[in-house]
């Protein structure tokens, strides 16, 4: 993206920017192009999880959406749509569950999008809550209304799946704080999507399992969806009983070169030091088979600690799987990146198949894999990795053993100390897919979330205990041209992307008012948008639809109401409400008809 993204602050955000000279393809240079704007009085606790919906996007208009979590008001998810080059619009937020209160269990921590009930409409899925005492606990599902470009995902969830619906044992166990425990796709080739859940269950380790869920029939919208557990993975519980190993991270790859793919499961311990690895082979429709269960390292206290997501990248036609172990300590022995190597059969895996690639590199297993530097020829994939000091780019040179550290170059692409004087937060999520270009300007991007802390202070001395920078967007380009966060700390007007919020939509007072028999209603749209304009009586009954889900260009528009209802009859004197509907938001005003 030639300009980048400002994300988050419940509603209002902003950015800075300019157009920059191009750099040579393949050069590992990225500039910080956007962060969320800071808004006075805004206390928005975001950044635990971030997701980009692209190919497919959520509302079928071809424009990608960026989704971000917040602990505020009981736990919420906010959606921003990239509406074109240089434009980002805040389009939707999930409902307030508990006004003014932080979410139970510091949730949601992860988001996934997709079509879980296979009805053709995309859904937004996330966890809220953790312990059985959390009354809000559950898997929340919001669904797009099916109207292309409408940005409407509902005021209420179409479903809330309680943990006890998945496994009755959750009535006495925790559920929902997994950082990388949601994966939604058709994993078994039956043309129906499955949702894999690693619920990060600590309280009762004997049912710390992985669940593969499917909507067997029906849909969320029709309220007749039949949810079934297609498979429950218990092998880690059975093989390592008593050791307290808990599945937390999942991904899918072909680890042994046979025709079947495997689900890879990473686990951390809730007792003493240790980490574990497991496999499920996908044999075909609704058919799964447990593979090996491996104790990985006794000296790694928690496998990945925060994210624990395995990375999968295809090299010369073969899937390569990378794993991260980290206990948060600074010692070289307790930060490690492995690559799975030499696996002939997923049922026969042991620690000899884990090849250490790096030690004492990165932190918290916050990472992603892509190829955002526009490389060609022998230019290889890039692993973007959070470190104690910022963001690292580990680039495979394109030749050599991908399990050998000498086959890579390492470059720090962002130094967090350029921004923060004191910090207690951390980069908590990196979202990247190969060739991701959010605003289609020809420059590839990756998005990083920052989980803030009350200790965070910018180098200019401004406290970020509230109104923090939570979203960082990086674009391939000249790193010396990154936006200056020291200037952004108090500036919410200067921005690189135009940020659209509901305040940018204007519904004018009708004229004349009072009127008889006709009146003109004017409205201004900041961008091309699917809208509706309806008139209601004071009891809330619809009187007339003037515009129904029509696409209008950006600019000023006017519509005349002739004082008639939808059947063509003249309405009585009195007050009427006219309502402009755009995406998930509305604006209303009152007018008076006098005869």
What does this structure look like?
This protein is an all-beta fold and 595 residues long. The protein is 2% helix and 42% strand. It has three helices and 38 strands. A five-stranded mixed sheet has the order 2-3-4-5-31, with no helix packed on it. A four-stranded antiparallel sheet has the order 1-30-28-27, with no helix packed on it. A hairpin with a 2-residue loop joins strand 16 (275-284) and strand 17. The longest helix is centred in the middle third of the chain and has 5 residues, at 235-239.
Please tag this protein with its features:
single chain, 595 residues, mainly beta, 5-stranded mixed β-sheet, 4-stranded antiparallel β-sheet, 3 helices, 38 strands, globular, disordered N terminus
Q: Largest sheet, if any?
A: 5 strands, mixed
Q: Determine Rg (CA atoms, Å).
A: 26 Å
Q: What is the tally of helical segments?
A: 3
Overall shape: globular
Spatial order of strands in the largest sheet: 2-3-4-5-31
The fraction of residues assigned to DSSP E strands is 35-45%
Q: Helix amount, in percent?
A: under 10%
Average pLDDT reading: 84
Termini distance?
56 Å
Structural class comes to mainly beta
């Amino acid at each position: 993206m030639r300009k980048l993204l400002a994300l988050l602050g419940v509603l209002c955000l902003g950015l800075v920017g300019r157009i920059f000279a191009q750099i040579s393809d393949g050069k590992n240079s990225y500039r910080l192009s956007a962060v969320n704007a800071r808004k006075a009085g805004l206390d928005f606790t975001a950044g635990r999880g971030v997701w980009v919906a692209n190919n497919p996007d959520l509302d079928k208009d071809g424009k990608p959406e960026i989704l971000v979590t917040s602990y505020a008001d009981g736990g919420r998810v906010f959606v921003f749509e990239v509406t074109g080059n240089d434009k980002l619009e805040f389009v939707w937020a999930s409902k307030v569950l508990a006004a003014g209160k932080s979410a139970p269990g510091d949730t949601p921590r992860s988001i996934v999008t997709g079509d879980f009930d296979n009805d053709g409409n995309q859904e937004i899925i996330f966890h809220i809550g953790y312990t059985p005492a959390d009354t809000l606990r559950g898997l929340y599902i919001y669904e797009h209304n099916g109207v292309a470009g409408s940005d409407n995902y509902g005021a209420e969830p179409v479903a809330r799946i309680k943990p006890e619906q998945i496994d009755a044992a959750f009535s006495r166990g925790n559920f929902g704080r997994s950082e990388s425990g949601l994966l939604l796709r058709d994993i078994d080739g039956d043309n129906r999507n499955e949702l894999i859940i690693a619920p990060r269950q600590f309280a009762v380790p004997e049912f710390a399992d992985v669940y593969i869920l499917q909507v067997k029939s029906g849909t969320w919208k029709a309220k007749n969806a039949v949810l079934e557990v297609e498979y429950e993975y218990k092998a880690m519980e059975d093989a390592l009983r008593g050791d307290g190993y808990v599945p937390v991270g999942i991904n899918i790859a072909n680890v042994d070169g046979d025709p079947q793919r495997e689900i890879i499961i990473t686990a951390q311990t809730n007792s003493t030091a240790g980490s574990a690895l497991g496999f499920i082979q996908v044999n075909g429709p609704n058919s799964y088979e447990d593979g090996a269960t491996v104790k990985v390292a006794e000296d790694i206290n928690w496998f990945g600690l925060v994210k624990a997501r395995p990375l999968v990248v295809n090299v010369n036609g073969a899937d390569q799987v990378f794993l991260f172990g980290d206990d948060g300590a600074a010692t070289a022995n307790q930060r490690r990146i492995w690559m799975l190597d030499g696996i002939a059969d997923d049922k026969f895996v042991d620690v000899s198949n884990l090849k250490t690639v790096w030690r004492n590199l990165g932190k918290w297993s916050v990472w992603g894999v892509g190829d955002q530097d526009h490389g060609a020829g022998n230019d290889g994939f890039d692993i973007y990795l959070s470190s104690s000091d910022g963001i690292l780019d580990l680039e495979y040179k394109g030749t050599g053993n991908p399990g050998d550290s000498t086959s890579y170059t390492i470059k720090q692409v962002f130094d967090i100390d350029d921004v923060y004087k004191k910090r207690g937060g951390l980069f908590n999520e990196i979202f990247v897919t190969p060739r991701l270009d959010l605003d289609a300007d020809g420059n590839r991007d990756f998005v990083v979330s920052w989980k803030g802390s009350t200790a965070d202070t910018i180098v200019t001395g401004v406290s970020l205990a509230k109104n923090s920078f939570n979203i960082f967007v990086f674009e391939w380009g000249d790193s010396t041209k990154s936006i200056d966060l020291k200037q952004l700390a108090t500036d919410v007007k200067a921005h690189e992307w135009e940020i659209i919020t509901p305040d940018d939509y204007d519904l004018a007072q009708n004229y004349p008012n009072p009127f008889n028999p006709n009146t003109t209603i004017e409205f201004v749209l900041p961008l091309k948008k699917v809208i509706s304009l309806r008139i209601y009586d004071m009891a809330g009954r619809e009187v007339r639809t003037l515009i129904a889900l029509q696409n209008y260009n950006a600019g000023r528009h006017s519509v005349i109401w002739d004082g008639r209802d939808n059947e063509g009859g003249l309405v009585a004197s009195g007050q009427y409400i006219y309502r402009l509907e755009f995406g998930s938001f509305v604006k209303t005003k009152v007018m008076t008809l006098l005869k």
